[in-house]
Design a protein that fits this description.
The protein has 201 residues and is an all-alpha fold. The protein has helices at 19-30, 37-44, 51-58, 65-82, 86-102, 106-119, 136-146, 150-165, 167-199.
């Protein structure tokens, strides 16, 4: 279906856009980030059932190049207003801090003071995340560097097991090992007795 061009005959000023299109541009650029494109189309007067489709058409440069161009030009001027520099940022934080203090919101005022300090570099966050592929050989070497002897590694492994599973499990394990040792000792004694009997004539 071919799009109708606006009828500008008899009008004082020639416009490229219909009233709904102009309203969409105004709302979309002034409420950018607050409203979705569909919400902007509904507020501009498009039918709720087709607003999503209309919004997509209005923002598609192939279907509505003039509208997209008008939105881009408006957004360029908005970006200059939105652009945050250090002085403007500090001024906003100070204003919020003063308003919060006047309302007795000392927690907010304190937070603003902290943020002002961060902007000026008084606080340093020392969070660092490093990601690196480690080969199995490198991992083994790092473990050997951390635990130079087998005894140190076993102690670490044992303390981790205690931390994860508690001391009770270690005691049970020790009891089981002791029982197994006794059983093995008993079996060995029986074996030696049987062997001794077999050797006797």
């Amino acid at each position: 279906m071919k799009k109708k061009t606006p009828d500008n005959t008899g009008k004082k000023y020639i416009t490229k856009f219909t009233a709904k299109q102009q309203k969409f541009i105004d709302i979309y650029t002034s409420r950018y980030g607050e409203l979705s494109a569909t919400d902007c189309a509904i507020k501009a007067g498009y039918d709720r059932s087709s607003a999503h489709t209309r919004a997509n058409e209005l923002l598609d440069w192939r279907k509505s190049p003039d509208i997209v161009k008008a939105i881009d030009e408006r957004q360029k001027s908005n970006r200059e207003i939105w652009l945050v520099d250090k002085e403007k940022h500090l001024a906003n934080l100070t204003r919020i801090q003063q308003e919060a203090r006047a309302k007795g919101q000392y927690g907010v005022a304190g937070k603003m003071e902290e943020l002002k300090g961060k902007v000026q570099g008084f606080y340093i966050d020392r969070n660092m995340t490093l990601t690196k592929e480690v080969t199995p050989d490198e991992l083994n070497q790092k473990m050997k560097d951390m635990f130079p002897t087998r005894e140190e590694y076993d102690l670490m492994y044992e303390s981790m097991a205690k931390e994860l599973y508690g001391v009770q499990d270690d005691l049970k394990k020790a009891e089981v090992e002791e029982l197994e040792d006794k059983e093995a000792e008993t079996e060995l004694e029986k074996f030696l007795e049987d062997r001794e009997r077999q050797r006797k004539p």
